[in-house]
Amino acid sequence: MSSKIIRLLQRHSGDTPWRHCQKASSSASLLLSIMAPSGDSDNKDKIQSSTGVSSSIETASKSSRSSINEKEKESPEVIRQRILDQEAEFRASQKPTTNLASFWSWKKSESRRPEDIATQPSVFDNPELAPYFQPTERYENRHRFDPSFKWTWAEEIPLIRKIDWKVTAWSCIAFFALDLDRSNISQANTDNFLDDLGLDTNDYNLGQTVFRISFLLAELPSQLISKKVGPDRWIPAQMVLWSIVSAAQFWLKGRTSFLATRALIGLLQGGFIPDVILYMSYFFKGTELPFRLALFWMANRLTDVVSPLLAYGLLRLRGYHGYEGWRWLFLLEGILTLVIGIWSYFQMVPSPTQTKAPWRKKGWFTEHEEKIMVNRILRDDPSKSDMHNRQAITFKLLWYSLCDFDLWPIYLIGLTFSMPAGPPDQYLTLTLRQLGFDTFDSNLLSIPCQITCTISMLLITYLSEKLNQRAFMGVVMQVWLLPCVVALYLLPADASRWAAYAVVTVLLSYPSTHAMQVGWCSRNSNTVRTRTVSAALYNMAVQTNSIISSNIYRRDDRPEYRRGNRALIGIASMNIVIYLLVKLYYVWRNKRRDETWEKMSQEERRNYMATTTDKGSKRLDFRFAH
Question: What's the pTM?
């Protein structure tokens, strides 16, 4: 951390020292003055010797001390919140790491000997600041909190591996269960699902629309329930209930039952993803969570590969006991995810210090390990002790995020960015059947584009981090999609089926910018308190995107869907313009803030830093990523 502060100070010590040295006032001044306890001269010497810019640090520290004197007149809650905001802004000012980008963002850390102290410096080391950050009485892990507790790397690293096996591995399996039950209708389509129920493509579009609307409407209520009763109770309940409904599709009779099950599955699955992320945050530090979320999202892509392979075998049961193969597909995969849901009841725990149960009498961790977990998490983010894990939340943050108009451009991107690929992806298996491929070949032929899409998604996420460009990477995605939908539109009706398959496969191998945009939204939120809500709003925009794209291909436009593909060409072209306009908007916003900041004197800047009530991306010293 200190090396990052120094690089920023050295880089921006010229014309605009205070604007870019806000890290020194918000974190360097606090960190370098409070990272080492008052009696720990060795740590202080290490920090100061690593800087090489003692004069800048001294100036920042003086400013910090004067700011603290001014704040003594304020209430403890105001002081505490201001320090949390400053630390959050410092973390946000660092180069953002999206979930998938963490795969290649590993850097060789400084050589650590097993016996070295792993305890992270924090506000708890300073007697003046520590009182503002004590865990509340209702915090479930309070009995293991000890600000004087120390531990070594030899103790922490094996503990993190244990948590990965207990929590991260479970989350990946749970996501597999979610995606298996929501997407197996695509495999069912290869087995004459629509014809057997007397449905057409319009009915199929309506079913997908009903599912996504239900999923969308359940997002926020599910998060409220999860925070009230606890993710360890709510998530398994969700999984068991949607698995029962999914398996019950074995008895579908027609349009009404089809739409009813689509609605129920959407309602029960909505909110599952943010619920799991909330649960994982109980166990991991902010710097550790992105890599675990990368594994979580990769489980989604893995399902798209495994699901056709399962269907290849299960659909061969057509005729067994007189039932169609797709009925057995729904039933057996529903039973599989039901087993995963029941297992989750026994696998999940309320918190790091509440792992004991009648079937797990010794729990997961020793008392010593629990102390390490609780103290390492709170040292990383003291605000995690503000609420009990069974405490409900309010709609205040939702309203605050809705009013943050600087995030609206990213929500707008979420509404349209993947729409050119949506209908071809949704109709992939139906298209393959129309091209003359049988049930089993259609499932196998749907796998290559899922693999190539995963690779291209990793690549574009890497490039966005390497080049520090986001809007331009979105343009790259649309430039990939545009000629593909043009080719799909111009493809003759009598073209070779392999030519049509090649066009669709190349189109669906597009480099998705979804993971990049989740990180973009998080970066431009700029506070820990609003990131979860803004991520949910972005995800709701993406779900709305899916609802719209589900209704572009219509029955009267089949089988070539010329009108639908013409609309996709227009949307891809529009998206290029949207990405460029979003970039121009953020460049303009940054320029306006630069002009305002440059007009302020050094004293005015210091006064602003110490007294401003602006939060998150509203601060004058914050610059938007684009």
Answer: 0.70
